[in-house]
Amino acid sequence: MEPSNAQNPAGMPLIGAKAPSFKAVTTQGEINFPDQYAGSWVILFSHPADFTPVCTSEFMTFASMEEDFAKLNCKLVGLSVDGLYSHIAWLRTIKEKITYKGMKNVEVKFPLIEDITMEVAHKYGMMQPGESSTKAVRAVFVIDPKGIIRTILYYPLSLGRNFDEIMRIVIGLQTADAFSIATPADWRPGDDVIVPTAGSCGVAKERMDSKADMTCHDWFFCTKKLDKEKVMAAIQKPKK
Ligand code: BEZ
Hints:
The protein has 240 residues and is α+β, with helices and mostly antiparallel strands. It has two domains: 22-161, Glutaredoxin (3-Layer(aba) Sandwich); 174-235, Antioxidant, Horf6, Chain A, domain2 (Antioxidant, Horf6, Chain A, domain 2, 2-Layer Sandwich), CATH 3.30.1020.10. Helix content is 30%, strand content 22%. The chain has helices at residues 53-64, 66-71, 84-97, 119-123, 163-179, 201-209, 228-235; strands spanning 22-26, 29-33, 41-46, 74-80, 99-100, 103-104, 112-114, 138-143, 149-155, 193-194, 214-218, 221-224. Strands 7-4-3-8-9 form a five-stranded mixed sheet. A three-stranded antiparallel sheet has the order 10-12-11, with no helix packed on it. A two-stranded antiparallel sheet has the order 1-2. The chain is elongated and about 65 Å long. The mean pLDDT is 94. Bound molecules: benzoic acid (BEZ). Benzoic acid binds next to helix 1.
């Protein structure tokens, strides 16, 4: 299916749309998004404000997981509507002063966008006035190597994100792409996966009659084994 550029009436990009493009200043220099990330998965995420506790816990967690995301060919890009010098000061404080849940001396190496004008935040529906008109909500956009938005999460200001779930999303999307399957509730690598639903009466009958390599709970709901090793071998990229 062709990607659409459709946005919903609130101006938010939608799953399946091309990620809105922008150029921005970041803590790692200027970026040209998403063109510069073509060929990689990328997580674009917003946080409400620098020097705040929930955001600090999130940045330390994300930075500690950066290498694990890199193994999945997935890069991280953060954003808030603070300025560059605030970003730099906050990231220096995190590295030099903060110890949290066994994490210390944490260096945030991924780019953090300054967006004082809120231009990027508005493009991605990160400003949600019912929650705050001056701070971005906690948004997460998972974007594939072709620049297509594949998953969107929005969290309120008070709720820190679950980073294991963000990792599970990237692994799940990559597994679905690599094996042409879907993943059931709470799926993790090594769990059974869902075979595409039968598209004809003949295939539906075959599925129910055959004792092949799948388990059919009914004609429309068949699962099969997919080893964790096979999943990880297909999606993890060797370090260059
Ligand atoms: C925080 O990250 O702790 C936070 C930021 C904005 C509003 C509330 C909490």
